[in-house]
Design brief:
Elements lengths: L5 E2 H8 L2 E3 L4 E2 L1 E3 L9 E4 L12 H6 L4 E4 L4 H6 L2 E3 L3 H15 L3 E6 L4 H13 L4 E3 L9 H7 L7 E5 L8 H8 L3 E4 L13 H8 L11 E5 L5 H10 L4 E6 L6 E8 L4 E7 L2 E7 L4 H16 L4 H7 L11 E7 L2 E8 L5 H12 L9 E6 L8 H6 L1 H7 L4 E5 L1 H9 L5 E5 L2 H11 L5 E5 L7 H8 L10 E3 L3
Parallel strand pairs: 4-5, 5-6, 6-7, 8-10, 8-11, 9-10, 11-12, 12-13, 13-14, 18-22, 19-20, 19-22, 20-21
Antiparallel strand pairs: 1-3, 2-7, 14-15, 15-16, 17-18, 17-23
Helix pairs in contact: 4-6, 5-10, 12-14, 16-17
Amino acid sequence: MTTPLWTQEETIAATGGKAEGARWAASGVSIDSRTLQPGDLFVAISGENSDGHVFVESAFAKGAAAAIVSKPTDKMRAAGPLVIVADTLAALNALGRAARRRARAGIVAVTGSVGKTGTKEALHFVLSEQGATHASAASYNNLWGVPLSLARMPADTRFGIFEVGMNHPGEITPLSKLVEPFVALITTVEAVHLAFFNSVEEIADAKAEIFDGLQEGGVAILNRDNPHYARLRARAEARGAARIISFGAHADADARLDKVALNESCSCVSATICGQKVTYKLAVPGRHIAMNSLAVLACVQALDADLALAALAMAQLKAPKGRGERHVVSAPLGDFTVIDESYNANPASMRAALAALGQSSPAGSGRRIAVMGDMLELGDDSIAMHRELAGDIAAAGIGLVFACGPHMRELFKALPTTVQGGYAETSDVLAPLLRDAIRPGDVVMVKGSLGSRMGPLVEMLLGMGDDDGASLRRNRGA
């Protein structure tokens, strides 16, 4: 018999709520009735745009084991067992704290301006080879996602990896104190969310809040190549980090890149990880991915896991959805490749994606094509940051650029006319221009902030498949 994730008794003990209805046990936790699985405990969160209490009955109709609510009704009581609390978000946090206390896992918290999700997924993948591993789903890194991810952690977890994000000062501290990591990793600090900060130094300080919940004797892992390294190190030391492991190409990095061979679909890395020489194949291409792989192996070392086994697993790594997935589309006129970077964008990640596109090898008369949407939340310097990408486009040997959004228009105007593929205010207007330009052998990279809606362009490209319109997608392991 499968051990339940939460029993009624455990939930009451954690939340201090009042039980009504039949006894129950839950196999999962959900705050979204649309994705709820049978057996989940549904927590009716009241958010800015919707109130989960509206969906309690539909959650039970989909098989919820019970629901945590603060505004019970007779219809809810008739639909299934309830746990009544004063504040459902506080109850979710209480479940997260209880899950953290009962698990004897090695816990890692990951933050950074770029690369949080990919690094978290890589850690999840390599550590899963060595024991029961739990990680945040997707980008569940905010005030709802972090406690939800904790509440979903089974008691027998050996390794737990949690992504922690922010776009305002003060957001990470309470989340870090909830997670209580033994290892806290900052991938990098870059000029993102500048609409909410006065300087990149303030962003560094906000990211350094990850150390506020660090366990006694814990480890901080920092990017030695980043200009804010000393600032971050000082904060980690002030918060009691017993050990600091740096990573990067810097000669003094503890997890040091010795050599990297960048190829279209993979990289070959030679590194020294805390004194141990390792050589491994990395199935996701790009120098930025190779650098973050050093941070992954530094975490493995900090957790006393098997470094050699983790390095070997890198050869099977896959990119998360929207963060570098590569697809070959079999179109009637010939195959072309799509690189899906549509989840989000900032200047650092855009440069990394353009550089990775530059490593690609179009077939025949194919071209490297960049499809670029606005990078949002960059503040007063946004237009200049967009224009500055022209140099990266030239350096990567990109043949055509399709752009959408008012800020990307400024970049588009700065490009040579021979590189200007097409511009539109919105991605839906850009779609037919892009579709009509594709030809066999092209390699097309699509990237922009989530609000610029680049995802539909990826779906349109993938839909240019065989004659009946069904795309033939073949993941190339990236």
